[in-house]
């Protein structure tokens, strides 16, 4: 959905810039096509817009001691590199940069899913092939006898029981597929043909 290195940097920024005097936790909301990260922290006054965040700027964490712990642990590689790393990760992933809303209530970051993910999501929500289309394709594929495993691999069927319930039983019952060894239906050498 969103590059993990970019997301990691956003979370680290949320932690080191959070105002811990309040009781509000960092909030992460995950949706099908986007994620929001909010914290009630502050950015330095000179970094009041996303445009300024993604340009070269000095690093002034709201919690310098906490930032130093992350730095010493290796989670932060260098001061002021977080936004560069976010930009690099988004470019590598062909995703859009996160959108920042910085105001007196806190910092809200919107991470939109990249186009590749949205295409996959769309394909999974609206499958290209109906069950009937797959069954017709199996019949065509089995002009020469094929094993269950060959059929499952060819059509990317999740597993053997799904294949049996959704396709094989129906195709055998309708006579569209036949067994090469009908007297031994569960033979390990069983193949199916049309």
Topology of this structure?
Blueprint (H helix, E strand, L loop, with lengths): L3 H13 L10 E4 L3 E6 L10 H4 L10 H10 L8 H11 L6 E5 L2 E7 L2 H11 L5 H11 L6 H7 L5 H15 L3 E2 L12 E2 L1
CATH level-3 fold name of the largest domain: Heat Shock Protein 90
CATH architecture of the largest domain: 2-Layer Sandwich
Number of helices: 8
Strand content range: 5-15%
Number of domains: 2
The overall pLDDT average reads 83
Q: Taking Cα atoms only, what radius of gyration do you get, to the nearest Å?
A: 27 Å
Instruction: Write down how many β-strands occur, each being a DSSP E stretch of 2 or more residues.
Output: 6
- Biggest β-sheet strands, sense, barrel: 4 strands, antiparallel
Describe the overall structure.
With 194 residues, the protein is α+β, with helices and mostly antiparallel strands. It has 2 domains: 4-119, Heat Shock Protein 90 (2-Layer Sandwich), CATH 3.30.565.60; 129-193, Arc Repressor Mutant, subunit A (Orthogonal Bundle), CATH 1.10.10. It is 42% helix and 13% strand. The protein has 8 helices and 6 strands, in the order H-E-E-H-H-H-E-E-H-H-H-H-E-E. The protein has helices at 4-16, 50-53, 64-73, 82-92, 115-125, 131-141, 148-154, 160-174, and strands at residues 27-30, 34-39, 99-103, 106-112, 178-179, 192-193. The strands form 2 sheets. Strands 1-2-4-3 form a 4-stranded antiparallel β-sheet, with helices on one face. The chain has a two-stranded antiparallel sheet with strand order 5-6. Strand 3 (99-103) and strand 4 form a beta hairpin. Helix 1 packs antiparallel against helix 4.
């Amino acid at each position: 959905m969103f590059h993990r290195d970019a997301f990691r940097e956003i979370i680290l920024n949320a932690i080191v810039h959070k105002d811990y005097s309040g009781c509000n936790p960092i909030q992460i909301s995950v949706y099908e096509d986007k994620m929001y990260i909010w914290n009630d922290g502050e950015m330095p006054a000179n970094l009041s817009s996303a445009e300024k965040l993604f340009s070269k700027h000095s690093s002034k964490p709201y919690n310098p001691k906490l930032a130093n712990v992350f730095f010493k642990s290796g989670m932060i590689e260098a001061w002021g590199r977080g936004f560069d790393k976010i930009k690099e990760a988004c470019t590598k992933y062909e995703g859009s940069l996160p959108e920042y809303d910085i105001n007196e209530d806190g910092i809200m970051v919107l991470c939109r899913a990249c186009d590749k993910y949205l295409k996959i999501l769309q394909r999974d929500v609206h499958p290209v092939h109906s069950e009937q289309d797959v069954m017709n394709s199996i019949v065509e594929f089995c002009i020469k006898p094929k094993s269950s495993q060959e059929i499952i691999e060819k059509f990317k069927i999740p597993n053997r029981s799904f294949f049996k319930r959704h396709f094989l039983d129906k195709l055998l019952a309708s006579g569209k597929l036949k067994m090469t060894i009908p007297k031994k239906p569960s033979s390990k050498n069983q193949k199916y043909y049309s």
